[in-house]
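Handout, section B. The chain below has 208 residues.
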Amino acid sequence: MFPNMGILGKQHRKSRGFTLVELLIVIFIIGVLAAIYLVVYPSAQQRTRDNVRKSDMQQVAAALHAYAIQKNAGYIVTSSGCGLNGDGNGWLDAGPTDTGAGTYPASITSCLQSAGLLTTGTFIDPSGCKWGSGGSCGTTNSVVQAYMKASCTKNGNPITYLFAHLEQGTSNNSVVDALCDSGSVSDFSSSTQKWGTLYGMNYYVTVT
């Protein structure tokens, strides 16, 4: 006779758990995935922040170029009333209310906003730093994750730069330090305009 094929006639197999080998394989796979995550995720975050920095530099550079055309003047330079001592250099977003930035009558970015060239007067590094204020923001002779601007001369010709520190960028102090003629940055001596060595800047945009 054929065996009963109905429900009552089904043979039930006892369920079994994972073997030790199977558990070890699962744990190993989870460990590998976790290790990959710990390596890849921080790198992806750094790359994202660096892309923001590059985009910010391009936007401010375009606004400075438009400012020069609008005002028939330089890219916010000496006696502009913006930046360090009102001479257009220094930390891009530092203003009169910032601790340690009392010599900034107006921030460079707020001046660009007042001219209708930026929709916001705040262009802060993704780290949240405006200037070398210590702590995680760094100080002189260390990496400072804040934007900077310098109008100077190179080989006697006027030129303007914007600076940032990229987390995934490489150090090129000798190149960055030599972007301006020695002592040609208003309110900066020849020894303090070393953007790479003193501030860790490793990315720059030339405003044209």
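Note. Residues 20-71 form the longest helix (52 residues). Compare this with the example in section A.
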